[in-house]
Amino acid sequence: MFANFTFENPEFFWLFLLLPLAVAWYIWKRNKQTAELKISTTRGFKIKSGWLSKLRPILFVLRMLVMALIIMALARPRTVDVSTQTSSTQGIDIVMAIDVSASMLARDLQPNRLDALKEVAEEFIRDRPGDRIGLVVYAGESFTKTPITSDKAIVLDALEDIEYNNVLENGTAIGSGLATAVNRLKDSEAESKVIILLTDGVNNSGFIDPNTASELAVEFGIKVYTIGVGSNGMALSPIAIRPNGRFQFGNVQVEIDEELLKEIASSTGGKYFRATDNEKLEDIYAEIDSLEKTEIEEFRYYNYDEKYRPLVLLAGGLLLFEVLLRLTIFRSFI
Protein backbone atom coordinates (compact mmCIF):
# COMPACT_ATOMS: atom_id res chain seq x y z
CA MET A 1 0.00 0.00 0.00
CA PHE A 2 2.82 2.41 0.92
CA ALA A 3 5.34 1.11 -1.64
CA ASN A 4 5.06 4.29 -3.75
CA PHE A 5 4.51 6.70 -0.83
CA THR A 6 7.44 9.08 -0.23
CA PHE A 7 8.36 12.30 1.57
CA GLU A 8 10.18 15.00 -0.38
CA ASN A 9 11.59 16.72 2.75
CA PRO A 10 11.89 14.04 5.47
CA GLU A 11 14.38 16.18 7.40
CA PHE A 12 11.44 18.17 8.79
CA PHE A 13 10.49 15.15 10.90
CA TRP A 14 13.25 16.22 13.28
CA LEU A 15 10.86 18.96 14.40
CA PHE A 16 8.81 16.27 16.14
CA LEU A 17 11.51 16.35 18.84
CA LEU A 18 10.17 19.76 19.83
CA LEU A 19 6.77 18.36 20.75
CA PRO A 20 7.89 16.57 23.96
CA LEU A 21 9.65 19.80 24.98
CA ALA A 22 6.43 21.72 24.38
CA VAL A 23 4.51 19.22 26.52
CA ALA A 24 7.05 19.53 29.34
CA TRP A 25 6.91 23.35 29.10
CA TYR A 26 3.09 23.28 29.20
CA ILE A 27 3.01 21.09 32.34
CA TRP A 28 5.61 23.22 34.10
CA LYS A 29 3.89 26.48 33.20
CA ARG A 30 0.46 25.16 34.25
CA ASN A 31 1.77 24.16 37.65
CA LYS A 32 3.32 27.60 38.07
CA GLN A 33 0.08 29.38 37.15
CA THR A 34 -2.13 27.32 39.49
CA ALA A 35 -3.04 29.35 42.59
CA GLU A 36 -2.71 27.63 45.95
CA LEU A 37 -4.68 28.45 49.13
CA LYS A 38 -3.97 26.68 52.39
CA ILE A 39 -6.78 26.49 54.98
CA SER A 40 -7.22 24.32 58.03
CA THR A 41 -10.47 22.76 56.89
CA THR A 42 -12.86 22.78 53.95
CA ARG A 43 -15.81 22.11 56.21
CA GLY A 44 -18.53 24.62 55.46
CA PHE A 45 -17.49 24.95 51.79
CA LYS A 46 -19.55 23.46 49.02
CA ILE A 47 -16.97 21.85 46.74
CA LYS A 48 -18.03 21.48 43.16
CA SER A 49 -15.62 20.43 40.44
CA GLY A 50 -16.33 22.14 37.10
CA TRP A 51 -16.13 20.11 33.92
CA LEU A 52 -14.73 23.07 31.96
CA SER A 53 -11.61 23.16 34.06
CA LYS A 54 -11.04 19.45 33.38
CA LEU A 55 -11.47 19.92 29.65
CA ARG A 56 -9.18 22.92 29.40
CA PRO A 57 -6.10 20.82 28.37
CA ILE A 58 -7.95 20.02 25.14
CA LEU A 59 -6.79 23.42 23.87
CA PHE A 60 -3.19 22.36 24.25
CA VAL A 61 -3.89 18.95 22.65
CA LEU A 62 -5.44 20.71 19.64
CA ARG A 63 -2.41 22.99 19.37
CA MET A 64 -0.08 19.95 19.42
CA LEU A 65 -2.12 18.25 16.71
CA VAL A 66 -1.89 21.40 14.59
CA MET A 67 1.90 21.46 15.01
CA ALA A 68 2.18 17.74 14.11
CA LEU A 69 0.08 18.19 10.98
CA ILE A 70 2.13 21.21 9.89
CA ILE A 71 5.38 19.24 10.35
CA MET A 72 3.99 16.40 8.24
CA ALA A 73 2.88 18.90 5.58
CA LEU A 74 6.36 20.47 5.52
CA ALA A 75 7.80 16.98 4.86
CA ARG A 76 5.66 16.97 1.68
CA PRO A 77 4.10 13.50 1.57
CA ARG A 78 3.31 12.32 -1.93
CA THR A 79 2.73 9.26 -4.02
CA VAL A 80 4.79 8.60 -7.12
CA ASP A 81 3.78 6.60 -10.18
CA VAL A 82 6.80 5.51 -12.23
CA SER A 83 6.38 4.39 -15.83
CA THR A 84 9.25 3.32 -18.08
CA GLN A 85 9.73 3.20 -21.80
CA THR A 86 12.71 1.55 -23.48
CA SER A 87 14.02 1.87 -26.99
CA SER A 88 16.96 0.31 -28.77
CA THR A 89 19.45 2.93 -29.87
CA GLN A 90 21.66 0.43 -31.68
CA GLY A 91 19.92 -2.78 -32.68
CA ILE A 92 21.84 -5.80 -33.95
CA ASP A 93 20.77 -8.00 -36.85
CA ILE A 94 21.64 -11.65 -36.23
CA VAL A 95 21.33 -14.70 -38.47
CA MET A 96 21.80 -18.13 -36.97
CA ALA A 97 23.05 -20.63 -39.58
CA ILE A 98 22.34 -24.14 -38.28
CA ASP A 99 23.67 -27.43 -39.60
CA VAL A 100 20.77 -29.92 -39.90
CA SER A 101 22.63 -32.83 -41.45
CA ALA A 102 22.04 -36.35 -40.11
CA SER A 103 25.17 -36.19 -37.96
CA MET A 104 23.43 -33.51 -35.82
CA LEU A 105 21.38 -36.39 -34.37
CA ALA A 106 24.53 -37.73 -32.67
CA ARG A 107 24.00 -38.36 -28.97
CA ASP A 108 27.20 -37.00 -27.48
CA LEU A 109 25.06 -34.02 -26.41
CA GLN A 110 21.77 -34.73 -24.68
CA PRO A 111 19.32 -35.72 -26.03
CA ASN A 112 21.19 -35.06 -29.30
CA ARG A 113 23.19 -32.23 -30.86
CA LEU A 114 20.26 -30.64 -32.71
CA ASP A 115 17.83 -30.64 -29.79
CA ALA A 116 20.52 -29.37 -27.41
CA LEU A 117 21.22 -26.52 -29.82
CA LYS A 118 17.53 -25.64 -30.15
CA GLU A 119 17.15 -25.43 -26.38
CA VAL A 120 20.12 -23.08 -25.97
CA ALA A 121 19.24 -21.01 -29.05
CA GLU A 122 15.71 -20.49 -27.75
CA GLU A 123 17.01 -18.88 -24.57
CA PHE A 124 19.47 -16.79 -26.59
CA ILE A 125 16.63 -15.46 -28.79
CA ARG A 126 14.45 -14.61 -25.79
CA ASP A 127 17.32 -12.65 -24.24
CA ARG A 128 17.69 -10.40 -27.32
CA PRO A 129 14.45 -8.33 -27.26
CA GLY A 130 15.95 -5.35 -29.07
CA ASP A 131 17.48 -7.25 -32.00
CA ARG A 132 16.21 -8.69 -35.27
CA ILE A 133 16.98 -12.39 -35.76
CA GLY A 134 16.76 -14.73 -38.73
CA LEU A 135 17.35 -18.45 -39.24
CA VAL A 136 19.18 -20.31 -42.00
CA VAL A 137 19.42 -24.10 -42.11
CA TYR A 138 21.81 -26.13 -44.23
CA ALA A 139 22.97 -29.65 -44.89
CA GLY A 140 24.10 -30.54 -48.42
CA GLU A 141 22.32 -27.33 -49.50
CA SER A 142 20.85 -24.37 -47.62
CA PHE A 143 17.73 -22.25 -47.40
CA THR A 144 16.28 -19.47 -45.27
CA LYS A 145 14.00 -20.74 -42.53
CA THR A 146 12.92 -17.23 -41.58
CA PRO A 147 14.26 -13.82 -42.68
CA ILE A 148 15.49 -11.37 -40.06
CA THR A 149 12.58 -10.09 -38.03
CA SER A 150 11.91 -8.43 -34.68
CA ASP A 151 8.93 -10.75 -34.12
CA LYS A 152 10.44 -13.26 -31.70
CA ALA A 153 7.33 -15.45 -31.77
CA ILE A 154 7.88 -16.16 -35.47
CA VAL A 155 11.57 -16.93 -34.92
CA LEU A 156 10.88 -19.21 -31.96
CA ASP A 157 8.19 -21.10 -33.88
CA ALA A 158 10.58 -21.55 -36.80
CA LEU A 159 13.33 -22.73 -34.44
CA GLU A 160 11.01 -25.28 -32.83
CA ASP A 161 10.10 -26.56 -36.31
CA ILE A 162 13.73 -27.30 -37.25
CA GLU A 163 14.42 -31.02 -37.49
CA TYR A 164 16.31 -33.47 -39.64
CA ASN A 165 14.42 -34.59 -42.75
CA ASN A 166 15.12 -35.79 -46.27
CA VAL A 167 14.11 -32.51 -47.92
CA LEU A 168 17.67 -31.24 -47.96
CA GLU A 169 20.43 -33.21 -49.62
CA ASN A 170 22.57 -34.84 -46.96
CA GLY A 171 26.08 -33.50 -46.39
CA THR A 172 27.61 -30.38 -44.86
CA ALA A 173 27.73 -27.35 -47.16
CA ILE A 174 29.36 -24.82 -44.82
CA GLY A 175 30.03 -22.40 -47.72
CA SER A 176 26.39 -22.48 -48.86
CA GLY A 177 25.05 -22.02 -45.33
CA LEU A 178 27.34 -19.04 -44.72
CA ALA A 179 26.58 -17.49 -48.11
CA THR A 180 22.82 -17.74 -47.55
CA ALA A 181 23.22 -16.09 -44.15
CA VAL A 182 25.30 -13.30 -45.72
CA ASN A 183 22.60 -12.80 -48.33
CA ARG A 184 20.04 -12.29 -45.54
CA LEU A 185 22.18 -9.53 -43.99
CA LYS A 186 23.84 -7.78 -46.93
CA ASP A 187 21.09 -5.17 -47.28
CA SER A 188 20.67 -4.62 -43.55
CA GLU A 189 21.14 -1.05 -42.28
CA ALA A 190 21.86 -2.15 -38.71
CA GLU A 191 24.97 -0.79 -37.00
CA SER A 192 26.10 -4.34 -36.24
CA LYS A 193 25.50 -7.48 -38.33
CA VAL A 194 26.32 -10.91 -36.93
CA ILE A 195 26.18 -14.53 -38.14
CA ILE A 196 26.36 -17.45 -35.72
CA LEU A 197 27.44 -20.44 -37.81
CA LEU A 198 27.16 -23.87 -36.18
CA THR A 199 28.32 -27.17 -37.65
CA ASP A 200 29.48 -30.59 -36.50
CA GLY A 201 31.45 -31.67 -39.55
CA VAL A 202 33.64 -30.72 -42.48
CA ASN A 203 32.67 -28.93 -45.68
CA ASN A 204 31.88 -31.75 -48.12
CA SER A 205 28.96 -30.42 -50.21
CA GLY A 206 27.70 -27.35 -51.99
CA PHE A 207 28.98 -25.19 -54.81
CA ILE A 208 30.28 -22.23 -52.77
CA ASP A 209 33.70 -22.30 -51.19
CA PRO A 210 33.58 -21.33 -47.49
CA ASN A 211 36.47 -18.89 -47.97
CA THR A 212 34.55 -17.12 -50.74
CA ALA A 213 31.52 -16.86 -48.46
CA SER A 214 33.65 -15.41 -45.65
CA GLU A 215 35.10 -12.83 -48.07
CA LEU A 216 31.53 -11.77 -48.87
CA ALA A 217 30.88 -11.41 -45.15
CA VAL A 218 33.92 -9.15 -44.81
CA GLU A 219 32.79 -7.05 -47.78
CA PHE A 220 29.38 -6.42 -46.21
CA GLY A 221 30.78 -5.77 -42.73
CA ILE A 222 29.36 -8.93 -41.19
CA LYS A 223 30.98 -10.56 -38.17
CA VAL A 224 30.85 -14.37 -38.01
CA TYR A 225 30.99 -16.43 -34.83
CA THR A 226 31.64 -20.10 -35.61
CA ILE A 227 30.79 -23.04 -33.36
CA GLY A 228 32.04 -26.58 -33.79
CA VAL A 229 29.73 -28.94 -31.89
CA GLY A 230 30.67 -32.49 -30.94
CA SER A 231 32.68 -34.35 -28.34
CA ASN A 232 36.29 -35.38 -28.78
CA GLY A 233 36.91 -38.90 -30.06
CA MET A 234 33.95 -41.16 -30.85
CA ALA A 235 30.25 -40.27 -30.75
CA LEU A 236 27.10 -42.38 -31.09
CA SER A 237 25.84 -41.20 -34.50
CA PRO A 238 23.44 -42.34 -37.25
CA ILE A 239 25.17 -44.81 -39.58
CA ALA A 240 22.24 -46.33 -41.50
CA ILE A 241 18.47 -46.31 -41.89
CA ARG A 242 16.56 -49.44 -40.93
CA PRO A 243 13.63 -50.84 -42.98
CA ASN A 244 11.21 -49.21 -40.51
CA GLY A 245 12.68 -45.80 -41.31
CA ARG A 246 14.49 -45.40 -37.98
CA PHE A 247 18.19 -44.63 -37.75
CA GLN A 248 20.69 -47.23 -36.71
CA PHE A 249 23.34 -45.73 -34.44
CA GLY A 250 26.99 -46.62 -34.06
CA ASN A 251 30.17 -45.05 -32.77
CA VAL A 252 31.69 -42.71 -35.34
CA GLN A 253 34.84 -40.61 -35.16
CA VAL A 254 34.01 -36.93 -34.62
CA GLU A 255 35.50 -34.82 -37.39
CA ILE A 256 35.19 -31.04 -37.30
CA ASP A 257 37.11 -28.74 -39.62
CA GLU A 258 38.28 -26.48 -36.82
CA GLU A 259 40.94 -24.79 -38.93
CA LEU A 260 38.33 -23.66 -41.45
CA LEU A 261 35.98 -22.42 -38.73
CA LYS A 262 38.80 -20.54 -37.00
CA GLU A 263 39.81 -18.94 -40.31
CA ILE A 264 36.23 -17.81 -41.07
CA ALA A 265 35.84 -16.31 -37.59
CA SER A 266 39.25 -14.62 -37.63
CA SER A 267 38.85 -13.05 -41.08
CA THR A 268 35.44 -11.54 -40.21
CA GLY A 269 36.35 -10.26 -36.74
CA GLY A 270 34.43 -12.98 -34.92
CA LYS A 271 35.51 -15.85 -32.71
CA TYR A 272 35.60 -19.66 -32.90
CA PHE A 273 34.13 -21.86 -30.15
CA ARG A 274 34.10 -25.60 -29.54
CA ALA A 275 31.09 -27.14 -27.81
CA THR A 276 31.85 -30.63 -26.52
CA ASP A 277 28.82 -30.93 -24.22
CA ASN A 278 25.54 -29.21 -23.31
CA GLU A 279 27.06 -27.00 -20.63
CA LYS A 280 29.81 -25.78 -22.95
CA LEU A 281 27.24 -24.98 -25.63
CA GLU A 282 25.27 -22.90 -23.12
CA ASP A 283 28.44 -21.06 -22.08
CA ILE A 284 29.27 -20.29 -25.72
CA TYR A 285 25.91 -18.67 -26.44
CA ALA A 286 26.13 -16.78 -23.15
CA GLU A 287 29.55 -15.43 -24.17
CA ILE A 288 28.30 -14.40 -27.61
CA ASP A 289 25.36 -12.71 -25.89
CA SER A 290 27.78 -10.73 -23.71
CA LEU A 291 30.05 -9.84 -26.64
CA GLU A 292 27.22 -8.51 -28.81
CA LYS A 293 25.37 -6.02 -26.61
CA THR A 294 22.49 -3.89 -27.80
CA GLU A 295 22.41 -0.33 -26.48
CA ILE A 296 19.10 0.22 -24.72
CA GLU A 297 17.88 3.70 -23.82
CA GLU A 298 15.40 3.79 -20.96
CA PHE A 299 13.08 6.71 -20.24
CA ARG A 300 11.45 7.00 -16.82
CA TYR A 301 8.40 9.15 -16.25
CA TYR A 302 7.49 10.20 -12.71
CA ASN A 303 3.96 11.33 -11.88
CA TYR A 304 3.78 12.86 -8.38
CA ASP A 305 0.54 13.33 -6.45
CA GLU A 306 1.14 15.78 -3.56
CA LYS A 307 -0.64 14.85 -0.32
CA TYR A 308 0.29 17.83 1.91
CA ARG A 309 -2.76 19.99 1.04
CA PRO A 310 -5.29 17.94 3.08
CA LEU A 311 -2.88 18.12 6.04
CA VAL A 312 -2.66 21.91 5.78
CA LEU A 313 -6.44 22.25 5.54
CA LEU A 314 -6.94 19.94 8.54
CA ALA A 315 -4.34 21.85 10.55
CA GLY A 316 -6.05 25.14 9.67
CA GLY A 317 -9.45 23.74 10.69
CA LEU A 318 -8.15 22.47 14.05
CA LEU A 319 -6.39 25.78 14.70
CA LEU A 320 -9.58 27.70 13.98
CA PHE A 321 -11.54 25.35 16.23
CA GLU A 322 -9.00 25.83 19.03
CA VAL A 323 -9.18 29.63 18.73
CA LEU A 324 -12.99 29.54 18.81
CA LEU A 325 -12.95 27.39 21.94
CA ARG A 326 -10.41 29.69 23.57
CA LEU A 327 -12.50 32.81 22.82
CA THR A 328 -15.86 31.30 23.79
CA ILE A 329 -16.25 28.31 26.09
CA PHE A 330 -12.83 28.58 27.73
CA ARG A 331 -12.65 32.37 27.71
CA SER A 332 -12.87 32.65 31.49
CA PHE A 333 -9.74 30.48 31.85
CA ILE A 334 -7.49 32.65 29.68
CA-CA gap between termini: 45 Å
Arithmetic mean pLDDT: 86
Order of helices and strands: EHHHEEHEEHHEHEEEHEHEH
CATH topology of the largest domain: Rossmann fold
**How many E-type strands?**
11
Number of domains: 2
Order of strands, main sheet, comes to 5-4-3-6-7-10
Helix content percent band: 25-40%
Overall geometry comes to rod-shaped
Q: What's the main sheet like?
A: 6 strands, mixed
Rg (CA only) = 40 Å
Per CATH, the superfamily of the largest domain is von Willebrand factor, type A domain
Q: Low-confidence parts, pLDDT < 50 over ≥5 residues?
A: none
Q: SS-based structural class?
A: alpha/beta
| CATH architecture name of the largest domain | 3-Layer(aba) Sandwich
Could you please describe the fold and organization of this structure?
- The longest helix is centred in the C-terminal third of the chain and has 20 residues, at 308-327.
- The protein folds into 2 domains: 8-23 and 51-77 and 307-334; 86-297, Rossmann fold.
- The chain has 10 helices and 11 strands.
- Helices cover 39% and strands 26% of the residues.
- The two termini are 45 Å apart.
- Helix 1 (18-33) runs antiparallel to helix 3 (58-74) and helix 4 packs antiparallel against helix 5.
- Strands 5-4-3-6-7-10 form a 6-stranded mixed β-sheet, with helices on both faces. A 3-stranded antiparallel β-sheet has the order 1-2-11. Strands 8-9 form a two-stranded antiparallel sheet.
- It has 334 residues and is of the alpha/beta class.
